[in-house]
Write a structure and sequence with these properties.
Blueprint lengths: L5 H4 L5 H9 L2 E5 L3 H13 L3 E5 L24 H12 L4 E5 L5 H9 L3 E4 L4 H14 L3 E7 L2 E7 L9 H4 L10 H4 L3 H19 L8 E6 L4 E6 L20 E2 L11 E4 L3 H5 L6 E3 L2 H6 L11 E4 L4 H10 L6 E4 L2 H9 L1
Parallel strand pairs: 1-2, 1-4, 2-3, 4-5, 9-13, 10-11, 10-12, 12-13
Antiparallel strand pairs: 5-6, 6-7, 7-8
Helix pairs in contact: 3-4, 3-9, 5-6
Bound molecules: zinc ion (ZN).
The site of zinc ion has 7 residues, from α7.
């Protein structure tokens, strides 16, 4: 084993087998800002085998107080490529895969499926929910983190069983329109505390040491106090709805009506069923017409969500349209599930 890891191999919690495990691990890091600048050098130094970075942002001057791996000469360049260059130089034996993009409904499922652990290093709440839902679906562990103002939060959501809590179980405690660093202010030194904590939880997770799972750590980064509590499983969260043993890509389960706004919506049930009630903003299209003439009904600027009464027909439509390159999704549980949820 490489001498560079000798000091950590001497730790009984790691040893040679733990080091081997780290070297075989694949981590997806969502966001390449301040948290990533703290977390990733720690994972790269520890010998995590493969790291994928996804972020669409470019480096701006206002990032430099906390995104400590970027240089003033790099303004305007994509964050992920610059970060990848730094990390590859730090430890050339690690595979670093930068992706200039946002995490979206379309890429989240495939990306998380290929990784052992997902790191939430983003500052946008909708993306955190997308990571959550994807990880609930695939029963993947992920490390949630946020550092805003003098408040820091870190948690490892294990998704190890059906009744482990998820971010939505906890989210009543997070303001939905949570501020981002740009408007609430943040200090680089405090982001580093949160990021180091996140890195430690990440390494523990990869080493299959789960004692600190499903606990929220709350930092007061000014008074330097840390509190922890076990995140309660919330029966009202119904996050098990996100889990489907027959899960297939391109299934979509909205948990709030607002989430449907992201889609162009097509109803492929019979005209009578449509006339008796349908989703707001939906368009009625016969499934045969849709499959034979999709250009006429699909809107290029938006993903399309197709629903039937349950889901067999909409899955069939998606199975036909996806290979043609259309960004289409089927509504999990169909109109019946939607109606039931509305009460
Ligand atoms: Zn939940």
């Amino acid at each position: 084993m490489d001498k560079r890891y000798a000091a950590q191999i001497r730790l009984p919690e790691i040893g040679i087998s733990g080091q081997q495990r780290l070297s075989e691990s694949h981590v997806l890091c969502v966001g390449a800002g301040g948290l990533a600048a703290s977390v990733l050098p720690a994972l790269v130094a520890a010998g995590v085998g493969k790291i994928t970075l996804i972020d669409k942002d470019v480096i701006s001057a206002s990032n430099l107080n906390r995104q400590t791996l970027f240089l003033p000469t790099e303004l305007g360049l994509p964050k992920v490529t610059q970060l990848a260059t730094r990390l590859a130089a730090q430890n050339p034996s690690i595979a670093i895969n930068p992706i200039i993009d946002n995490l979206t409904l379309e890429n989240a499922y495939a990306l998380s499926n290929n990784h052992d652990l997902i790191l939430d290093c983003c500052d946008d709440y909708q993306t955190k929910l997308l990571i959550n839902d994807t990880c609930v679906n695939f029963k993947k562990p992920w490390i949630y983190a946020s550092a805003l103002g003098w408040d820091g939060q870190v948690a490892m959501f294990s998704n190890s069983s059906l009744d482990t809590p998820c971010l939505r179980c906890y989210s009543s405690r997070i303001p939905i329109n949570s501020l981002s660093c740009n408007n609430s202010g943040v200090l680089g030194a405090s982001v580093n505390i949160v990021g180091s904590f996140q890195a430690t939880l990440a390494l523990q997770t990869l080493l299959q040491h789960y004692e600190n799972k499903d606990k929220m750590y709350i930092f007061d980064l000014w008074s330097l106090q840390v509190q922890e509590f076990i995140i309660p499983y919330n029966n009202n969260c119904k996050h098990e709805q996100l889990i489907n043993a027959n899960y297939k890509n391109y299934q979509y389960t909205p948990l709030t009506t607002n989430e449907l706004d992201n889609f162009h919506i097509i109803d492929i049930r019979t005209l009578t069923e449509w006339e008796n009630g349908h989703l707001p903003a939906a368009q009625h299209v016969n499934i045969g017409s849709l499959i034979s003439n999709p250009e006429q009904y699909l809107v290029p600027s938006k993903p399309t969500l197709i629903y039937c009464n349950q889901q067999q027909l909409s899955k069939l439509a998606v199975d036909n349209l996806r290979p043609l390159g259309f960004n289409v999704w089927w509504l999990s549980g169909g109109y019946n599930a939607y109606k039931e949820k509305q009460g």
